[in-house]
Each structure stands twice: as structure tokens, then as C-alpha cells.
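Write out a sequence, fold above all:
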Amino acid sequence: MHIKYKEENNLNNQNPVNMKDLDRAMNELNLCEKTSEDLGLMRRYLERLLLTIERSRIRDYMMLTDSKRRLFLINFVAGLGKGFGQAIGFTFLAGLLFYMMSSWVDLPVIGEYIAKLMNIVDEYRKGR
């Protein structure tokens, strides 16, 4: 049933609503003045709605989510890009932090802690 539903509702085979055909159908009806004004108002709202739907690319999004493999691939590549960007950003910030720390070694409080840490590292290297 699912395959039959997809075949019947395939978005590529559907014809879009033609506003000229809609106008012709509305003009063929013999309507009173008030009804034709209401239909004109509805037609304007319908045009706005169709424009909004076309701009929102709902059709493209539905076609994207229809293919699980394509959706997985796009999300995988996006995740790789985000991870790579975070790694580069962290490396840059850590380098900047270490550069600033090296210039602060002369400060009495921070310099003492860094000197103690360097002594511990030197002792550990000599022990090996």
C-alpha cells in the first residue's frame, strides 16, 4: 500500500495550479457582486499562500527526507565540517592561551605555579 500511495502522490507528476485557469473558471460562473468580491479576496489569499509555499521549498524538503541515504550523507558531511571547525577553533584558542601564559611567567603568582610544574616535569624526565 505504501508503494501505491507513493506512485499516486508523486510530486513530480502533479501539475501546479494555474492562476489563469482559476480566473477563467471563476469568470464563467454567474455570481452576484458580493460573491465575486469574496472570490477575488480568496484568490488573492490563495496567490499569497502559493507564493509562500513556493518560497519555503517544502517540496524540496519533502524530496530530501524521502531518501534516507541522501539525508544521512548530508548530515554526516555537515557533522564532519562542524567537528573540523571546532577542532581548528580550539587549537587556535589553546595556542593563544599558551602564548599569553608564556608571557605571564614573570608574574609572581602564576609564575611560581608554572615554575613548580616545570620542575615536576623535569624531575619526572630525569627519573626515566
In short: Residues 1-66 form one domain. Residues 68-103 form the longest helix (36 residues). Residues 1-7 have pLDDT under 50 and may be disordered.
